[in-house]
Design goal:
Helix content: over 70%
Radius of gyration: 21 Å
Number of strands: 0
Number of helices: 6
Length: 128
């Protein structure tokens, strides 16, 4: 696999393989990333589509990067915040500092539920 810097530079020069590579390498990751902020699948797909449309349209003016994934995630987050602002300006402040939740494993969830259950039982015992 070619390093991100080379692929990004080729994309900026208009190489079609680079666009395909960037899209297919990152589209699923962007969708999963979007699900951390919104459950609206259509909104997420629209933002991804707009992101790639803008990348293609402005490719000659894009800056350099050696981490395409980070670049796309930051761009996606900004586009999502702008989209939310257009739909509902009152919610915009909540999206200004979008942060993704850390997703733990099923094991972590199970341990958390067990701990909660133990505390709940201890409280019930104390009350009786």
């Amino acid at each position: 696999m070619k390093p991100d810097k080379k692929i990004w530079d080729d994309f900026r020069k208009g190489e079609n393989y680079a666009l395909s590579h960037i899209y297919f390498q990152h589209v699923q990751m962007l969708f999963r990333y979007g699900k951390k902020f919104s459950q609206d699948d259509e909104l997420i797909k629209d933002i991804i589509q707009d992101l790639f449309f803008d990348l293609i349209r402005t490719r000659k003016n894009l800056g350099e990067t050696d981490n395409i994934c980070f670049y796309l995630m930051a761009s996606f987050r900004r586009k999502l915040a702008k989209s939310v602002h257009k739909k509902n300006p009152l919610e915009y402040s909540e999206y200004l500092e979008l942060t993704a939740e850390i997703v733990y494993s099923a094991e972590h969830d199970l341990i958390g539920k067990e701990e909660f259950s133990q505390r709940e039982n201890a409280v019930k015992k104390a009350l009786t």
